[in-house]
Write a structure and sequence with these properties.
Elements (H helix, E strand, L loop, with lengths): L1 H26 E2 L9 E3 L6 H18 L2 E7 L1 E2 L5 H11 L6 E7 L4 E6 L7 H17 L3 H12 L10 H16 L1
């Protein structure tokens, strides 16, 4: 009688443990497939208006530079669980090319990765700088849309890059001011 009771208790404990694990597994996501939009948002990280702003920034960057950003917002990365491998698998599954860049963000997992092909026109150093200096501050603040917009601008060589040709405009203005004064 005791062994039957112990078996029932052990079975009940296993069922409870399995039920407690179910929500965590349900929130984790395998690599995603992109449709016509460069954004996949399975967790409603951005509003419709924010998504339109992200898409506009992505389109502008692509028009300007030929570089296309894709953004995936998921709860957590699963199979593979680390951000870099998940992003690489997603890029491979979607046949992304040398000028396609992927920003993968796990909202609940508090992880992200900006990936690029090995033969991309932006160097690994450029990608790391964009991720750390441009995207990550917005992610830290929980501003998912701003992270993608700033990332698109930086990848496209626009204002969000923190570099580019901004210094040229300043130098040009100084020269024009000097000519006007003289």
């Amino acid at each position: 009688m005791r062994s039957v009771r112990r078996g029932s208790i052990a079975c009940a404990v296993l069922v409870v443990l399995a039920l407690l694990q179910a929500p965590a597994v349900a929130n984790a996501e395998q690599p995603v497939e992109f449709g016509p939009s460069p954004i996949v948002d399975t967790v409603d990280a951005v509003t419709d208006d924010e998504a339109r702003a992200v898409e506009a920034a992505i389109a502008e960057a692509a028009d300007r530079s030929g570089r296309q950003l894709f953004v995936a917002y998921v709860s957590e990365f699963e199979d593979p669980a680390d951000a870099g491998s998940w992003a690489t698998e997603t890029a491979n599954d979607n046949n992304m090319g040398s000028e396609d860049y992927l920003l993968a963000v796990a909202i609940d997992g508090r992880a992200y990765h900006l990936s690029a092909a090995e033969d991309a026109s932006l160097s690994a150093g450029d990608i790391d700088r964009i991720a750390l200096e441009v995207i990550e501050p917005h992610l830290r603040d929980g501003d998912w849309a701003a992270a993608a917009i700033a990332g698109a601008e930086a990848i496209g060589g626009g204002g969000g890059s923190g570099g580019g040709l901004g210094w040229l405009w300043i130098a040009l203005l100084v020269v024009v001011a000097a000519v006007v004064v003289v």
